[in-house]
Predict the structure.
Amino acid sequence: GAVVSQHPSRVICKSGTSVKIECRSLDFQATTMFWYRQFPKKSLMLMATSNEGSKATYEQGVEKDKFLINHASLTLSTLTVTSAHPEDSSFYICSASPGTGDYGYTFGSGTRLTVV
Amino acid sequence: GENVEQHPSTLSVQEGDSAVIKCTYSDSASNYFPWYKQELGKRPQLIIDIRSNVGEKKDQRIAVTLNKTAKHFSLHITETQPEDSAVYFCAATNPTRTYKYIFGTGTRLKVLA
């Protein structure tokens, strides 16, 4: 089945630094990937849709300059949290779909970001 | 846009009993409804899904029903086991328009041994 790899699984960074999170589709090509943020005991909040070869589409209220998304290839999307602050601490998770005919998403394993 | 509501937020059942989680959606154009199970600290896993051309789908102890007229769908787990304890999320989308899912708020299911 479809496999999505996300790295790193955990990261601790200092306030003001930037952190890059990678999401890879291992056995399929994904023209579209999604980035979610999940607070403890809460639902998955869609942050943005990552489109291969074009700009990401951000959800309302998500700062595009703070959460930079790059989808340079059909198997890799990256989320960079710039100038991180403690309030950015959260669980970030990506998802991807093989595409036409298979509507089910596969999620990455998630990244727990802690900003100190 | 689509809005998905999910109830209850928490649910405790005795092992062996059934559990039902309900979701309602607002966009009549939505036609694909997946259910995900998320264990603590892990990624959501697709457990069952249903498309709008069917009213019910079953996979062993798990079933999903869909009422398009009322715009609601439900997850049914029978003969619950402790390993069913997790958070369950429903979602709705129309894959012909977008792959973007709108998730429900989640239900924390606890199966008591």
